[in-house]
Amino acid sequence: MQKGLIDAKKSVFPEAKYKYCVRHIEANWCKRWRSGQAKKLMWWCAWATYVEDFEDQLRKLGDIDEEAAKDLLKYKPQTWCRAYFDTQCKNIMVDNNFTESFNAWILEARHMPIIKMLEEIRLKVMRRLVSNEAKVRSWKGDFSPPCMKLYNVYRAIAHGCKVEFNGDFGYEGTEGDDRHTINLKDKRCTCRAWDLSGIPCPHAIKAMLYDKVEPGTQIHWYYCKEAYLLTYKNKIQPIMGVKFWKVDPA
User: Fold this and answer.
1) What residue ranges do the domains of the chain occupy?
2) Using CA atoms, how far apart are residues 151 and 145, in angstroms rounded to an integer?
3) Lowest mean pLDDT among 28-37, 183-192, 237-246
4) pLDDT digit string, tens, across residues 185-225
5) Burial of 152 (0-12, 13-18, 19+ CB in 10 A)
6) Closest to 48 measured CA to CA, from 37, 36, 60
7) Under a CB-based contact definition with an 8 Å cutoff, are residues 24 and 1 in contact?
8) Which residues have a Cβ under 8 Å from the Cβ of 81 and sit 6 or more positions away?
């Protein structure tokens, strides 16, 4: 929300997608709308994975307080609601907890003089890359543990789903009163959970099992050990002391 950031983004990264942190939206929005039910529905709006679900939650919010719903729409849903997110990056987060965690991680360094601060952060990142790479190499499977945890939850839910096959690539998946269409060829489900995360949703898993395809083979490459190791491939190189630095004369 910092003034100038959006303009700078358009200038430097014109094709890049961006999102707002829902926790910050909540903090600003809740200065006026403090109802616990309203805040709950606001978060349901953010978590909605398809437009109809978002509109349904927004309508419920409007039934509680019409002005609150209108006020929320001052923030473009495309920047904070999953239903409108681009599916390329496979990131379904609606908050910037990662950034806040990093800020807390370097909190002590941030109070140091500029050179010492940068040196402290450099060493912390150097150690962190080594530590994270070691953790990835210790994985027992081919995919990240958080990914497999969510996949196993989806697989358990899939047992309660039903599918109907159209004889081509299309399936109709039913989960309780909810129904979605799945296209295994395009790797898409209208619930958009598969599209957004790259992890097959319960409806897609049920369709794959019907088609005798192992769902685990359809998890996106982004979550595999190879991809994670590429993240830590380029190391921060050690450097000599300050007296060896080449400093250009002012």
Assistant:
1) 16-84, 106-138, 145-228
2) 10
3) 28-37
4) 999 999 999 999 999 999 999 999 999 999 999 999 999 99
5) exposed
6) 60
7) yes
8) 45, 46, 48, 54, 94
